[in-house]
């Protein structure tokens, strides 16, 4: 039986954090993932504003007896006593550091932070890594144990994982922003579909999936319909066979009087490729024309003209 590589748990963490798509659960889910590679008794994800004194955290596991108002009130005031946080703020270095790198056990026990926050939780050893250290904000994970310190090997694993955690945090924040505008875009029949590097979908609102399936056929396992996937593959080619730059062509489908148009937008400077969906229907088209302060009949006539009807055909309607 083959032994597990010492880095195999770290690879599991990378896969787990890449799947996080909810900003409100990022800290908790990332802590669960980290526990696969670096065991701890209590972990926390912290966002600390050193100027305003604001500090919030989520803990794993969450002990309701200790997660009380008194502790939450004390933590923002006392957390600045943490020497790892002081080091991160002073140097901008977010790499893995232990409390024992800065303080003896006796010095740690003299801190009010230890007396009020750490001792009730049984925290004697801690390692922390920061995702962001741009003053005044520090965003960091702190892993804590009762009985054993963190090893040099475990520090190495955390340092190896840190870039992945930074990227995962950025990705989930971007997805959160997209979720925020999905509803507004849906109201005008539009959606942004974010693609991953392989042409799959990294993010799409629910109505976009339904529209794609209605216009281009059934999808399996979350994959794009074949016609859409082939179109994306063609659009990603920057030049034609004869060397000329490609002019991006929309993908259009019409069913009855509903039309769906997809427009490809290539990514730049590390940003992902996307395509924009726009669904046009008589009801939505008439609604948009009415916003021009036309009467219902004027809007209807203009809509029919835009659809290519002749004046004689309109007169018969």
Give the SSE map.
Layout: H1 8-18, H2 26-34, E1 42-49, E2 55-60, H3 69-78, H4 83-91, E3 97-98, H5 105-110, H6 112-121, E4 125-132, E5 137-145, H7 152-186, E6 190-195, E7 201-203, H8 206-216, H9 226-235, E8 251-255, E9 258-265, E10 274-280, H10 282-290, H11 296-306, H12 311-316
Antiparallel strand pairs: 1-2, 1-5, 3-4, 4-5, 6-7, 6-10, 8-9, 9-10
Helix pairs in contact: 1-2, 1-7, 3-6, 10-11
Q: What does the model show?
A:
This protein is an alpha+beta fold and 317 residues long. 43% of the residues lie in helices and 20% in strands. It contains twelve helices and ten strands. Strands 2-1-5-4-3 form a five-stranded antiparallel sheet, sandwiched between helices. A five-stranded antiparallel sheet has the order 7-6-10-9-8. The longest helix is centred in the middle third of the chain and has 35 residues, at 152-186.
Offer a few descriptive terms:
317 residues, alpha+beta, five-stranded antiparallel sheet
What's the end-to-end separation, in Å? 78 Å
- Uncertain runs with pLDDT below 50, 5 residues or more? none
Helix content: 40-55%
Instruction: Tell me which oligomeric state these chains represent.
Output: single chain
Element pattern in H and E: HHEEHHEHHEEHEEHHEEEHHH
**What general form does the structure show?**
elongated
| Tally of helical runs | 12
Radius of gyration: 27 Å
- Major sheet description: 5 strands, antiparallel
Mean pLDDT, to the nearest integer, reads 81
Strand segment count: 10
Secondary-structure content class:
alpha+beta
In order across it, which strands form the biggest sheet? 2-1-5-4-3
Strand content: 15-25%
């Amino acid at each position: 039986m083959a032994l597990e590589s010492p880095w195999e748990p770290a690879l599991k963490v990378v896969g787990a954090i890449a799947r996080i798509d909810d900003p409100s659960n990022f800290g908790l889910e990332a802590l669960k993932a980290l526990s696969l590679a670096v065991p701890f008794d209590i972990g926390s994800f912290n966002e600390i504003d050193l100027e305003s004194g604001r500090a919030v955290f989520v803990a794993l596991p969450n002990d309701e007896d200790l997660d009380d108002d008194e502790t939450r009130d004390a933590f923002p005031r006392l957390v600045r006593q943490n020497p790892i946080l002081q080091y991160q703020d002073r140097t901008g270095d977010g790499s893995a550091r232990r409390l024992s790198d800065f303080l003896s056990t006796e010095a740690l026990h003299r801190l009010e932070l230890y007396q009020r926050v750490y001792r009730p939780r049984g925290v004697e050893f801690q390692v922390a890594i920061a995702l962001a250290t741009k003053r005044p904000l520090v965003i960091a994970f702190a892993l804590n144990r009762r009985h054993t310190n963190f090893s040099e090997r475990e520090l190495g694993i955390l340092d190896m994982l840190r870039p992945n955690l930074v990227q995962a945090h950025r990705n989930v924040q971007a997805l959160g922003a997209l979720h925020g505008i999905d509803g507004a875009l849906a109201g005008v029949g539009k959606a942004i579909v974010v693609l991953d590097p392989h042409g799959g979908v990294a993010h799409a609102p629910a109505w976009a999936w339904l529209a794609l399936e209605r216009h281009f056929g059934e999808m399996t396992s979350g994959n794009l319909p074949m016609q859409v996937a082939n179109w994306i593959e063609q659009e990603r080619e920057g030049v034609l066979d004869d060397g000329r730059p490609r002019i991006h062509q929309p993908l259009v489908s019409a069913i009855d009087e509903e039309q769906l148009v997809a427009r490809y937008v290539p990514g730049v400077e590390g940003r992902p490729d996307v395509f924009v969906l726009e669904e046009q229907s008589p009801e939505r088209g008439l609604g948009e024309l009415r916003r021009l302060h036309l009467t219902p009949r004027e809007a209807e006539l203009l809509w029919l003209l835009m659809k290519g009807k002749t004046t004689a055909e309109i007169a018969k309607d």
